[in-house]
Specification:
- With about 325 residues, the protein is α+β, with helices and mostly antiparallel strands.
- The protein has a single domain, classed as L-amino peptidase D-ALA esterase/amidase (4-Layer Sandwich), CATH 3.60.70.12.
- It is about 25% helix and about 25% strand.
- It contains four helices and 16 strands.
- The chain has a five-stranded mixed beta sheet. It has a five-stranded mixed beta sheet with strand order 3-16-14-12-11, with helices on one face.
- A hairpin with a 2-residue loop joins strand 6 and strand 7.
- Helix 1 packs across helix 2 and helix 3 packs across helix 4.
- It is globular, with a radius of gyration of 18 Å.
- The chain starts with 10 loop residues before the first strand and ends in an 11-residue tail after the last helix.
Amino acid sequence: MNSITDVAGIRVGHVQKVGEGWLSGVTVVLPPVGTVGSVDVRGGGPGTHETDALDPTTLVSIVDAVVLTGGSAFGLASAGGAQLWCEEEGRGFAVPGTVVPIVPAAAIFDLGRGGDVKARPDAVMGYQAAAAAFNSGDHAAVERGNVGAGTGAVVARGQFKGGIGTSSITLDGGVIVGAIAVVNALGSPVFSGAGPQSSAGTVVPPQGLNTTLVVIATNAVLDVAECQRTASAGHAGLARALDPSHTLVDGDTVFALSTGAVELDRSTEQARQVSLITLQSTAAEAVRLAILDGVLAAESVSTEAGDFPAYRPAGE
């Protein structure tokens, strides 16, 4: 389906509110139990929760859910709702009497875009998005455009709509690399051969704050350090898709998840290196495609609704 849900066991749920001052939402990526994960945060204005727990040197290597949310730092409250849903389902790090779910989260800035600066996601929406992800089933189509965390997203200094996009790439040996992106960037999207000119050297005031959030998922067996390196590689795709990227007012964050269903070739050290380089290069391309997909999906919605100008690459 050219979607992150092509990776078996990965599920995605969206919840959003539109109208009466609202234009925001939450997206939860729910992986199979036992999924390993890490993160790489590079933007100058990140809004994150529990990302330190994903460092390769820390205690726990498992990720129970990833929350992507609107509402800036206020919206990170939605992670608590997803965490509660996971606890009720018995997903998490076992402690006496319960489990502690590992639920990292990251937020985009969309405050006030629906008219009410107080209208932002909370724990209830996080719980609902986690439940929606679970109920979607395996290999479900992922709704794209202005849904979930992408509901209030904009790109190119607020000139055009942003939104949710997704992609997947299949490699030899059955390895699949998928990505989902929430595109809310200061920069403009770069379409091959027809993208906007670089804005380097110009001084254009940002319209509020920004951020692009990405989750990469693969069925390949990776440890936490390899997941972190894969997340790092994903930022290359982000930089190829958005110009400029990783700015002072973007909180660009990339998560990487490994479901561990397919072994990479590690028969020799050279084979191991080739396998990882191939996978991580593919992750960068999957991120690029997911970001551009999010822009095009939002373009379709904005063209129909008339709320924002449609984004048209130069020359089209």
